[in-house]
Structure formats: C-alpha cells, structure tokens
Amino acid sequence: MTALNKKLARDLWHMRGQLITVALVVACGIATYVTMRGAYESVLYAQQDYYSRYRFADVFDHLTRAPDSLAASIASIPGVSSVQTRVVVEVTLDVPGLDEPALGRIISIPERAAPMLNSLCIRSGGYLDPGRRDGVIVSESFAKANKLNVGDTIGAVINGRWERLQIAGVAISPEYVYEIRGTEVFPDNRRFGVMWMSREALGPPFNMEGAFNDLTLSLAPGASEADVITRLDTLLDPYGGLGAYGRYDQLSNRFLSDEIVQDRITGIFIPTIFLGVAAFLIHVVLSRLVNTQRAPIGLLKAFGYSNLSIGLHYLKYALTAVLMGTIVGAPFGIWLGRGLAKLYEDFFRFPELRFISSPGMIGSAILISAVAACLGALGALRSVVALPPAEAMRPEAPARFRPGFAERLGLQRFLSISARMILRNLERRPGKALISTLALALAGAILVVGFYFYDGIDYMIRVEFQTASREDVAVTFNEPHGSSAQYAVAQLPGVMRTEAFRVVPVRLRFEHRFRRVAIMGLEPDRQLRRLIDLRLNAVDLPPEGVVLSSSLAKILGAAPGDRITAEVLEGRRPVRQVVVAGVVDDLIGASAYMDIHALNRLMEEGPTTSGAFLSVDPLVAERLYLFLKRTPAVSGVSVREAMLTSFRDTIARSLGISVGSLVGFACVIAFGMVYNGARITLSERSHELASLRVLGFTKAEVGWMLLGEQGLLAGVSIPLGFLFGYGICALLVRAMESELYRMPLVISGRTYAFSAIIVILASAFSGVLIFQRLRHLDLISVLKARE
Amino acid sequence: MPEPSQPPGGEWIAPGRKRPAGDAVFHVRGVTKVYRMGDMEVHALRGIDLDLFPGEFVVLLGPSGSGKSTLLNILGGLDVPTSGEVIYLDHDLTSASERELTRYRREHVGFVFQFYNLIPSLTALENTTLVTEIAENPLSADECLRLVGLEQRLHHFPAQLSGGEQQRVAIARAVAKRPEVLLCDEPTGALDYPTGKLVLEVLERVNRQLKTITVVITHNVAIAAMADRVIRISSGAIIDIHKNETKVAPSELTW
Ligand SMILES: Nc1ncnc2c1ncn2[C@@H]1O[C@H](COP(=O)(O)OP(=O)(O)OP(=O)(O)O)[C@@H](O)[C@H]1O
Ligand SMILES: [Mg+2]
C-alpha cells in the first residue's frame, strides 16, 4: 500500500460517520433508481412480451349485431392482418360467498383451443371441455378475489334464465392486464370479472347464432390504424358499431401504459433529488477535508506529487462513498423492486412479471452516482489544484466575522450571546447555510409528496364516493326500458328511493376533434347522484344542453356555448347538435352529462331509462341483492359501499410500500444533512467548543450552541419544505394527469405535520449522535494545538 | 443547564478528608499522572507535593515534556490525577465527577493559553460577557477590558486584533468571573518581546488588584523574577521551589 493510500484509509476511518451518511444518501439514490427504473423496464418488457406472445389485438370495436359473413369484408380492409369476431355480453353473477350480485363480462372463444387474437394464458385447470355447454374459464383476478377454484360453480343470469356455470379453468388475457369494468378507475375484482365461454354456448341465448357483436383485429406491419378505423366504422355503421378504437383507447392497455409513463417520470425525479443531495454532501465534506489538510497538501506538492495524483487522491474519498452506497443501495433497490413487482401483480396480471435488474442498469446507476459524486467533489478539487504549496503550508486565514444582519438592524438587545454566535456563523457562509436548508427542505418535501398520496386518495373518495355518489346501489338494465321499469325497481324489497338514469353511447365531435363517450342523463331534482366539481361544489344540470367534464372539454377543445355534434351510437343512431351548457372540473375521466329529459328528447324517445340509482334500507339489503341476482332484466348491479371498501384496500396496499420507502429515504436525507452539518461544525469549531468547556460551560450549554445552528436551519427548512412539497405535488399531479383520472391537489394539515415531525425527529436523532461526540471532545489536546 | 444545586462555595467535602493544612488554597499530595498508550506508559507526573497560598504569583519552569501543563490542567480541573490527592479549599478534585469539575472551573478557575482560544464570532466585549453571564459574582465586562487596557477595542472581532490584544482579551475573559485562581500556560509563548511584557504587566496587575492566585508556565527564565515563588519541574517531579525575596516589576524584566 502506498503512503497516500494509507493516509486515505486512515482519513476514511476517521470520518466514517460522515462517510456513512453520504453513502446512505447515495444508496438511497441508487436504490430508488434501481427500483423505479427497474420497475419501469420490467413492466415495459412484460407488457411488450405479453402483447406479442399472446397476440394482443390492435383495433377493437363493439356493435349491436352483424352476421358472421361480414368478417370476410372486414378482413379484406387493406392493412388488416387477422380478424376475430366474437360475442361479448355482461351478465349478473351470483358468486358463492358474496352477498351482492357481481357483474360478469362473458367473451366468446372457440370451443376447441385454436390460435386467436388476445389468446388466453391458462393459469390453472384447462381449456373448455368441448362436450359441455356450461363450462367457463374465469379470469385469475376474479377467481383469486372470490377464492374460486377449478370445478366450482357460479350462478349467472344468461339472457333471462338462471344458469350454473362450472369453472373449467383460470386464465389471464392481454386484453385485461388491468381488469376493470370501465365505469370506475380502480379495479373491484370481487364484483367484476371477465370470463370466457364457447361461442356455441354463448351465441344462442343472446340471439347471436351466426352473428357477432364484438370484434378485435390485428394490423399488418406498416398499416395505418386511423385508415382501418375509418373504414371499419363505415362498414359497421349499419350494424350498430360503437366506433372502433385502437390500443391507445383500450382501457387495460391505457392504464398500463399510463402506469409505465408514471414509473418513468418518478424514476427520473426521485433519484435525481437523492443524487443531488449526495453531491452536495460530498462537496461539503470534501471541502472541509481539504481545508483541514492544507498543510499535508502543500507538503505533498512540495515533494513533487502532481496536481493530478493529489486530485485523484481526494476524488477517492468521494468514490468510496459511491462504492459503499452501491454495495448497500443496489441490493436494497433490487429487493425493493421485487416487492414492487409483487405489488404490481395484484393490479396488473402478466404471465410473468420478473423484476429486471440488468447489470447495465446497475452499471448506469453507479455511473450516474459517480458523476454526481465527481460534480460534488469538483469544487474541493479545484481548490486543491489552485493551492500553491507555500500558501498551503500556512494555516487558513482566520475567520472574519462581522455583526449579523439582525444586529445591523439594531436588534442585538434581543439576542443572547449564543444566538449572536449562531447567526454570525450562519451569515459567514450564507451559501452553505442556504444549500443545507434547501436539502433539508427537500427531505421535508419528499415527505409531503409521500403523504400527499393519501390526501389525494382521501379527497377522491370524498368527492366520488361520498359527495357525488350517494346511492347505495346502482342497477343497470340489460336494455333501455320505459319508465315502468323504474316503478318496478321501486317496488323491490328495501328500496327507499329511486332515481332513473339514461346512458347513451355517442361520438362527440367538435371541429375536427372527436371522442367516444357515454352521455349520462340524470334526473333534474336528484339526491343520489350529483355532479361535483373539485371544490366539492354541486353543479347544476341545465334543462337543455350537455355538461362536459373538463378533461373532455379539453379533448374536444369546446367551451360553454359551443355547439357540438353528438352521433348517437345506439338505436336509430341519430346525429344531433347540442350546446355545451357547462364544464364541470371533476377528477375522473372524460364524461358528459345531460338532464335525462333533454337526453330523451335528443334521442326522440319517450321517458326511457338505462338503470336506476337506489337508496336501500340496510336491514333488507341482502334480500334485495338476492332478488337482483336473479332478475333477468338487470344486467349489472354495483354497490357503493363494497366498491369503496375494495378501493380503500387496494390503495392502502399499493401506497404502503411506496410511501414507506419515501419516508425512509427522506429520513436518511434529513438525518444525513443535519448530522453532516453538525459534524463539520463540530470539527471546524472544536477549538471554540473546547474553549467554552474550559470556561466552565456545561456539555448541554455547548451542545445547544453547536446544534442551535442546525436547529435554526431545520426550523427554516420546514416551511420551505412545505412549499417545495406543494410545488412537487403540483408538478406530479400535472405529469401524471391522464384522460382517465387525475389527482386533486389537496394537501392536508396532517401531511404537513407529519413531514415536519419526521424532519424534526431525524434532526433530533442526528443531534443526539453529535452530542455523543461532544462528550468525548478531548479538551486538552484540542487546546494544545494551534487553531 | 445548571449543575446540581449546591450552596455557593461548595460543601462536597469527601468523607474522611480534611481541609487543606493552614491557609493553603491548593493542597497537592503525591500526585502522579500516567498516560497509557498501548503497552507504553508515560509517567508525566511522579509524586508532586505542593501547596498554593492566597494571592501568590507562581512561575512554573521546566524543560519541554517535564509535566508542567499536565500539573496545571489537573489544578484547573481539566484532568484528574492517576493517584494522589488534589484539594482546592473544601473541594476534592481527585474524586470529582465530570459535572463537578465543570462546575469547579465555572466558579473558581480562569485559564489563559498560549493560543488565545477566543470565540472568533464574538467581539472582545462579547467574549468577556460570555463569562460574566454564567458567573456568580462577576466583574463587568467593560471593567475587565479596561483592566487589560483594551477599552478602545471593545467591539473588535478576534480577527481584527493583534496577537497581544487577543491574549489580553483572553486574560480579561479569564478574570471576568473573579476567579480564585488564574492558570496561564505559556501566555507569552506566541508573542514578541514588547507585547509579551505588556501581557505580563496585565497578569501582575490582576494578581495585585484582585488577589487572584496566579500560576504561569513559561520557558522564559527571566519571567521568574516577577514571581513570589518559582517552582522547577523536571521529569514529572518538583526539583526546586524558590521564594523570591523581592519581586521585579514586569516592566523591568529583560530577556
Ligand atoms: N494525552 C497524552 N497522552 C500521552 N502522553 C501524554 C499526553 N499528554 C502529555 N503526555 C506526555 O506527558 C509528558 C508531560 O507532558 P506535558 O504536556 O505536561 O509537558 P510540558 O511540560 O507542558 O511540556 P511543554 O513545555 O513542551 O509544553 C510528556 O512526555 C508528554 O509526552
Ligand atoms: Mg506544556
């Protein structure tokens, strides 16, 4: 070992506390990078692999009914590679162990396994038994949520008849990686499930023999999706086509792709913060080291060591921190990533979701941290190089102080002497104080961001489940009915109030922009379902015209007063002009609302409803459910309370890990900053502190003079952290906002309080460690040496 | 944080110990100090017996490494002996805890070191005030600085003062609490001739006006002439105590 390396080893040992904190921050940076980047790459890879191996379709469409013979015309559209026609229906299910009725979406598949688009990946059991008509394959999420196994039976109302379906197999499909009904944002796998039945069994009861009502197709390489969709729409228009759409608008794919984008954003955002802080810490620690080692540096230079070799020597300190950080951070990141991948599997079903931690990725993590470390070391190294040997051997010029800012304002009367010391020390190095404060504020901000997710979700729940939707049960009819249906529902056991709704699928057009949505018609004086904007204000539905959600208004580029075109995709498919009567700034999705009477008039129909919202006497709810499970005219039932519970469960699980790790990481930053700051102050001012001890100040008194500085910085950083946290949340909300939903930017007092408390605790903890060091300050040897 | 409540002057006489004999303030008997460094033992003090009396000015002489600083630090409560006993009035410093030693320093001892050890972020006045704030019966900070001839420099920071001025601030700070004993470890070591003399004059004045026991370590034999007693130490033992019949004023010293 060379003499220089021996010095390195001894110095490293001597500053191990600081080294460890820096290494920990680096480790956080590397861990978050590995976790988040890894999650991004893993999900992206799993998605692409799944889609190509299981032939995920490119274009999707739903229609009323078309003869099988049309398939050939579709296949001959230029650019279409293969076509899969099928029957897709939604039915009410009676699942063993579930009080409420569930909704099943049944998709037809060939009776015998054959190559097809969106092919199934069988997880247990097998394919359908060709001889049997009652066999189904159910989706894995649904089976798991309801603890269903191969061989179990489920009750279903198949076109008016109550039937028993037996589970032949459990499978997943690339069409339902994220299995969601489409009327809400979060999955409720207990009450909504996809299942597959043979075309032969599903066709006849739904009047689809030799016909289909749904199709998916794949495109030939290089084909234009838009062209194919235009031709397909023209072709299917007479058959009640709802308008074809590509993968971008396919719900499961959309959610998955949004998630991937968000992973990429956070995967850049969060590690950057950590590595920035790490660079700063390295800068502070190394500058300090170089300052105390001016004489040895001068000596080395005098002996003829080159600037390069001395520079490299000091760079090794920074790189040691990176090395240590990597050793801890990379495995931790992989471990965390694996946990995250497990979590993803609860939401997204893939044949296999392996957490990818390629050597390349880890290599780049190390490289990025090394670059950050070098940037941090740069300032210190520059001063090493700039130091002429003779100058270096002289001690650093004595610290120059001046009266602090507060004193220049004439406020010294109010400041104790120790307060003056603290203020003057801070003012002497304003840059350092500023950056320390900023880094601490960042830690606070990360905490605010972490806890904000709970606030956002809480607020969404308040808006969506408690203020907007107040019905207990929503019932959807299998087809639009006259007003008599509503009276019939009102007679059901336990129903205390009913409010009808009408849902009409349309294509809304404004200028050249268009969007397929469903217009929701609501009763004018309604209590169970209200329109609520972001600030929890109820929005009125005018008697005429359509109210658009703000995201839909943005898509269409339409504003109140504009006349937009509504191409109805149901019944006689009228095309109408309708005035935008208002825009409601809401959280979820692109949606449109009308007064139900106005909607009926638009449709040129008498009083017609698609379903009803009910408020139900909880005591007899079970009887009602039993009844609804077997009512042929009802195709869907959703129970608000049950949805809310499942929503909360899912969210709690998914937020647990990410918020937990963010909190941990933020603690590391807060701790690292305060510890390092105080540690350096301790060494820079050991003379001063020892003098105070000699004068008879107690350890506690000296401790406060030392830590007061850090305390003040922490105090200033807390409100600043609130501000940053708010800003980062605002950025994140914007970055993650999608057409499907957005998070409201509301941060609770509780979140701010948690953030402050954790910063204070982390600071206090590092304060205690510093105190320990202070106890062992060797007064005599400190005072023997010249400053 | 205040030390555990005790009446001023302290009543923590260890059981079985007697007050110092006669009117001695310090009573040092058989004090040894051994530093252990691995297998090596350094005997810094080997059985020191010494009494210090009220108001006397003592100069400690001895070659480098002879144990002068070690003895001074033990007298000042910065360090404890390995064996032997050190009694200050009714305080037993031998068995005192860290807390008790801090309290002892706070109430009774003033230190002056070769390197002035001022707080760089505080002005001369504030450095002195720092001490008056925690003392029982302090002099006023202005008064102390006037005593050392620095009434024109009250609001200067250490970096704006010369070495001699800094040392005088250090002395002002040390005497501000009205200590019973002032311990100076090579106070003129870093100063030039005229400045060193100025500092010695200040020490003499403090000793005379405040009746503070003053112990000064020096390598400068000439300084011995201004002392009441001169103690010579060699290899951790007192080899000679010499009482000056007549003291020479510091202004008349030459070296
Ligand atoms: N902390 C320590 N550890 C080990 N040995 C020590 C320590 N402090 C002092 N010594 C040793 O004790 C002996 C006495 O030291 P001391 O500092 O009292 O000498 P001194 O008389 O003040 O010398 P000088 O005139 O050079 O200041 C020396 O040999 C020294 O090496
Ligand atoms: Mg000495």
Number of domains of chain B: 1
Dominant shape of chain A? elongated
| Helicity of chain A, as a percent range | 40-55%
What ranges of chain A have pLDDT less than 50 throughout 5 or more consecutive residues?
none
Q: What is the quaternary state of this protein?
A: heterodimer
Beta-strand percentage range of chain A: 15-25%
* Largest sheet data of chain A: 6 strands, mixed, barrel
**Which topology of chain B does CATH recognise?**
Rossmann fold
Q: What are the secondary-structure elements of chain B, in order, as H or E?
A: EEEHEEHEHHHEHEEE
Helix/strand class of chain A: alpha+beta
Protein chain pair with the most extensive contact, residues per chain: A-B, 32 and 35 residues
How many helices of chain B?
Answer: 6
Based on secondary structure, the structural category of chain B is alpha/beta
CATH class designation of chain B: Alpha Beta
Distance between the termini of chain A: 31 Å
**Uncertain runs of chain B:** 1-19
Number of domains of chain A: 4
Shape of chain B: globular
Heterogens: adenosine-5'-triphosphate, magnesium ion
Account of the protein in words:
Chain A is 53% helix and 20% strand. By secondary structure, chain A is α+β, with helices and mostly antiparallel strands. Chain A folds into four domains: 57-254, no CATH class; 402-428, no CATH class; 430-468 and 647-787, no CATH class; 469-646, no CATH class. Chain A has a six-stranded mixed β-barrel with strand order 3-4-9-6-8-7. A six-stranded mixed β-barrel of chain A has the order 13-14-20-17-19-18. Chain A has a four-stranded antiparallel β-sheet with strand order 2-10-1-11. In chain A, β15 (531-532) and β16 (538-539) form a beta hairpin. In chain A, α2 runs antiparallel to α10 and α2 runs antiparallel to α19. The radius of gyration of chain A is 33 Å and the shape is elongated. The model of chain A has no long low-confidence stretch (mean pLDDT 85). Chain B has 255 residues and is α/β, with parallel strands linked by helices. Chain B has one domain (55-80, 97-252): 3-Layer(aba) Sandwich (Rossmann fold), CATH 3.40.50. Chain B contains six helices and ten strands; from the N terminus they run βββαββαβαααβαβββ. Chain B has a six-stranded mixed β-sheet with strand order 6-7-8-3-9-10, sandwiched between helices. In chain B, strands 2-1-4-5 form a four-stranded antiparallel β-sheet, covered by helices on one side. The termini of chain B are far apart. The chains are: A alpha+beta (787), B alpha/beta (255). The A-B interface holds A 398-402, 417, 420-421, 424-425, 428, 687-688, 690-701, 779-780, 783-787 and B 1, 3, 69, 73, 76, 78-79, 99, 102-107, 109, 111, 113, 115, 117-122, 126, 129-131, 133-134, 157-159, 173, 177. The complex binds adenosine-5'-triphosphate and magnesium ion (MG). Magnesium ion is lined by residues 68-69, 185 of chain B.
